[in-house]
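Sample intake sheet
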Amino acid sequence: MGSKKTLTFFYSIYNPTIIELNYINKLINYIKKNQLLTEEIDIVIFDDTDNNKYKNYFMDNKVKVLNVQENVKKNKALFYSIDKINSKYLKIVDPDDFLVFDFLEKVINKLKLIDADFILHPFFKLKDNKIKYQNFKEVRYYNFNTIYSVDKIKKEKNLINIDLLYNQDQYLGMIVDLDSSYQKINIPFYIYNRNSFSSIWNNLKYNYSYKYKNIDQIINDTEKNIQFYNLNYKKLSKGVKPRFIRSLFLKQKFKNRYQIYKYVKSKIKTKRININLWILFACFLKFKWI
């Protein structure tokens, strides 16, 4: 299997644009020109396209391309791929997001000194053609601010819900958080692209026909996250609570936040969240935390 590397960038591509494919190739070529990065970074691509049409696209660059004969989406792709990833840490990269190449050496040197189940880092958000720095107070368990331990994901692999489409990142974050330790690194090397037209959340926010067509799955996936939290909250770190509630109150899912509040209130059974849910909801509205 070869020597173990420090970090794997994991891409799952299911409808890539030529811009996204070119960007991944640009990253591959950048790593190849840097000896440290070549020795310490792997790139794994899960080809989730119809007929796996990109399975040979990256072969010239000797990048590992994985696939199965079905359309699976991100968490299911990780489920199928994790046993073939040979590194200490894993960073899931959405194809429409970007990495700050100049920071990659700093990331590797930092990760080589750290031993944790997951690592949080600040990031940049690209929205309306403006880049905004997101500090630690604003980060949550989403792919764009988290690095995962490969061994931890392998250990908890069977908990990964392979049927989720919405809230996949939050669900995976809670799985990795179970009885875990985490650290922070102050290197904002990830750019979350809110300008992307392919973003699920942009579709939910701006395309009401899309939301209406998918509302049953949105509700079903939200409920699965709540069920997981209800079952495992005693094993989760204290920081999960505010991030978990914040993820539930994403207004893109429903017509308004009060509708979300009523729904979430009816589903959450644990007293440590439910008893203060109305106060938290009111604060979120007043201070616009979400």
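Comment: The two ends are 44 Å apart (CA to CA). The CA atoms of residues 222 and 245 lie 11 Å apart.
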